[in-house]
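Case study 2.
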Amino acid sequence: MTIKEVKQWLGRGRFIDGEINILLAERERLFEQATKITKAPKIDNVAEGGGNATERIMIKYTNCTTKIDMRVDELCRVKEEIEAVIDKVEDYKLRNLLRYRYINCQTWEDTAYAMGLSYVHVVHNLHPKALCEVKKLIEENSLSGL
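Prediction:
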């Protein structure tokens, strides 16, 4: 496993988190559409089984909610998997850096601030060390059959 692959493996949670945020914004937009005041639906359209626009929007809203629930479940599973590896990192600074970035989805600036360190030190010194530790742990677990 390369360092790039380790970053991608750790970054899965951030990716899913971003997808969830997009779906939440879409669901909010659908809810606003469904609840805005409009003209009364045409009785003929509803009687023919076509439903009105609000009904169609609420179906989309429900489908979006289902997608969000599925992605949240996936995010929890992925974060548990990532956290299990992070917990095995011995150096507490590296472990905290990995938690801030890959579990809490913080920016590098926020991570550096939370750790009381410079951005450059966190990104150019600690992060590469942390990735090497994770790479080693993943490879050890792969060899042991875990």
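The radius of gyration is 22 Å.
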